[in-house]
Design goal:
The chain is α+β, with helices and mostly antiparallel strands. It is built from eleven helices and 19 strands. The chain is globular, with a radius of gyration of 22 Å.
Length: about 325
């Protein structure tokens, strides 16, 4: 049974002892690549979505084929924006994890208040795209709603490293503006973080790669369509070898925006279902390394990409200048 409202898509399977419910929060859903790619039965697809005059008018809507869906929960595990939940008899339950066919992704967001500049408190809260960071006045600390945090790492940069975020996916995102359709910024409209955004001063499309969560929603809405091709891949798990025919993009270099996923951090698991899901989701770039965190929190382009980032830099520059001038001979080190 399937029913949809403007805010939710709900699938139900009622049996004598089981009542399974899959729920999509359509406000959170961005129409990413991970749900459809991870589904073992190809039951998930995106419909609709329109770009008018270079702006996203309506985002992609998720739809599920009730005849194909087996309520395995793989999409719940892989959803990068925590838009999908699943219950069994009204209790949270994900079958593929319960039966150890799928791992738990390794991800976290931690805050260290020691040495933190509390003048940045509101700046951090304002730059959380999912509004999951709040100030606990009684404990004098910043608190994260971990269940809904999407690990975008904007708080890392906004806090000058007081937050430390572990993203499950490692990879990269590439923006080729010369390939874009003139005036199109649909990818920035759908991006759930500030990874793709419109610069407040120039009005140009800007990539702040460190904030990318590798969801691929930008690729999904881009009006320059990918060319797909089939290819065979040999999968091995627990002594069993299988040859599977999968689908990949054949014209990556022609696309304005492209997201690559190299590897994912997860708990140990031995499962053919997980091996096949990874083959669909990840690119073969295991030797590559993600942007270093220590370097990222000091990158000027990442700070400027945040809301109010330019103003923050100007205030901090003025404060540092005043501190230098207060020292004997410090004025000589101030750049005029």
């Amino acid at each position: 049974m399937k029913h949809r409202t403007e805010q939710t898509l709900v699938l139900e399977r009622k049996m004598v002892t089981h009542h399974d419910v899959l729920t999509w929060d359509l406000d959170r859903c961005v129409g990413c690549q991970l749900g459809p790619k991870s589904c073992p039965k190809e039951a998930i697809q995106h419909t609709g979505g329109s770009v008018v005059d270079g702006r996203l008018e309506t985002k992609l809507l998720v739809d599920v084929d009730t005849e194909k869906c087996i309520f395995c929960g793989m999409c719940v595990v892989m959803c990068p924006v925590n838009a999908i939940s699943m219950t069994l008899n009204e209790a949270a339950y994900i079958p593929v994890q319960a039966f150890e066919a799928f791992p738990y992704l390794v991800e976290s967001t931690e805050f260290d208040a020691e040495g933190f500049d509390w003048d940045r408190k509101d700046f951090i809260i304002d730059n959380c795209p999912t509004d999951v960071i709040s100030y606990d006045e009684a404990a004098h600390t910043l608190v994260v709603d971990d269940e809904h945090c999407i690990r975008c790492r904007q708080c890392e940069v906004a806090s000058d490293g007081a937050f430390e975020v572990v993203q499950p996916w490692e990879g990269t995102v590439v923006l080729r503006r010369e390939q874009c359709i003139e005036g199109c910024v649909a990818c920035a409209d759908i991006c759930p973080t500030r990874a793709l955004h419109i610069d407040e001063n120039s009005g140009e499309l800007v990539l702040a790669d460190y904030y990318c969560i590798k969801c691929g929603a930008c690729v999904q809405v881009c009006p320059v369509e990918p060319v797909m091709e089939e290819y065979d891949v040999t999968l091995q798990s627990q002594g069993v070898t299988q040859v599977k025919t999968l689908v990949r993009v054949a014209n990556i270099d022609e696309l304005p925006i492209w997201v690559e996923r190299w590897r994912v951090k997860h708990t140990p698991v031995q499962s053919g279902a997980w091996v096949e899901a990874l083959a669909k989701l990840a690119d073969e770039k295991a030797s590559q390394v993600e942007i270093e965190r220590k370097r990222a929190v000091k990158r000027r382009d990442l700070i400027v990409a945040l809301k109010g980032g330019r103003e923050l830099q100007e205030r901090e520059a003025q404060s540092k200048e005043a501190q230098l001038r207060a020292l004997k001979g410090g004025g000589a080190f101030v750049q005029e």
